[in-house]
Backbone:
């Protein structure tokens, strides 16, 4: 069985990635030591830099996942600041910002960064389109899932099993797996 180290402090990300890769016979081992996160408007350079930094530090191949929610009416906010906003404002304050907005379209994006020691980092991007709900719904998933509406139900309502078949993370991992093979 192939093993891969996934550097993340986010339990929700870890359990999704573990589940998706287990189906491909890959064991995912969590490392929660973290990495320096560049301040960039795009997620790709953040994931690439993080993966290279940890691969060099540990001397092992590693993967990271930098992700975010991009809300069109808010010009892409919170985007690369999604973790900070989730921690400091939370879903209710994001809904408040969206109170008078008619265009509720939003994109979830996940960038998997992969790097081998002495190698150059690679990135694999996945996106899923949806809408910002009017209230938090459902108890599944994590983070922004209760306010991300996918075809009429939030990821919080749809639950992990379904989410893992259509999510931004699933799509990014599919690209990564294709490359691995
Ligand atoms: P790392 O240790 O992996 O960096 P993090 O939580 O800091 O964990 P990010 O910097 O990528 O991760 O921040 C992404 C934010 O968006 C964070 O608040 C997540 O909870 C949230 N998020 C990411 N993917 C999500 C998903 O699939 N569903 C809901 N929220 C998600």
Residues:
């Amino acid at each position: 069985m192939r093993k891969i180290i996934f550097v993340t402090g986010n339990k929700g990300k870890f359990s999704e990635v573990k589940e998706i890769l287990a189906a491909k016979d890959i064991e995912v081992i969590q490392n929660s030591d973290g990495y320096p996160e560049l301040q960039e408007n795009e997620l790709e350079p953040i994931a690439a830099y993080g993966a290279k930094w940890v691969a060099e530090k540990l001397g092992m191949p590693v993967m990271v996942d930098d992700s975010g929610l991009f809300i069109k009416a808010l010009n892409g906010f919170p985007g690369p600041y999604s973790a900070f906003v989730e921690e400091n404002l939370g879903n209710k304050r994001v809904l408040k910002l969206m109170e008078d907005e008619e265009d509720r379209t939003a994109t979830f994006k996940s960038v998997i960064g992969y790097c081998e020691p002495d190698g150059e980092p690679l990135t694999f991007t996945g996106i899923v389109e949806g809408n910002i709900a009017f209230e938090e719904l459902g108890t599944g998933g994590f983070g922004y899932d209760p306010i991300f509406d996918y075809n009429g139900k939030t990821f919080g309502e749809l639950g992990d099993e379904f989410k893992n078949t259509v999510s931004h993370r699933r799509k990014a991992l599919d690209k990564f797996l294709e490359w691995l093979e």
Notes: The chain has one domain: 2-180. Strands lie at 2-7, 26-31, 62-71, 105-115, 122-132, 148-150, 153-154.
